[in-house]
Amino acid sequence: MDADGSGGEEREIESAMHEHADGQPGTFKLYRDYHEQLQLEGGYYVFAAYRIRGRGVEALAHERRPASRLPTLRWHGGGEHRGTEQATIGIVCVRNIGLRLLSHPQSSAVSTHRKSQTRLLS
User: Fold this and answer.
1) Number of compact structural domains in the chain
2) Model's pTM, two decimal places?
3) pLDDT at 53 over 80
4) Less Cβ around it within 10 Å: N or C end of the chain?
């Protein structure tokens, strides 16, 4: 786990660029072992979207979500370096982040691809 919340609950902090170099919306990578432990402990994720700005980064939006309230995850290889499987969640699928980025003038990729992500989490 990345950190403990103020009430002692476990949390995992995940960040993603709002769009990749090829213009596609960003994705959050989750790892199965960490996710299952977070669920068992009643923990949550903090998802944050950012963009490169000058020589640093600018946080664009963030959202806290219980680990038990994520869409169905499709686990696959790719997490071998952590000894587990991984899954990805599209940045526009995290409701508050997706909605904030849709209104952000620098988020052309998210706006272009919002129709392909028909279900935002509620």
Assistant:
1) 1
2) 0.72
3) yes
4) C
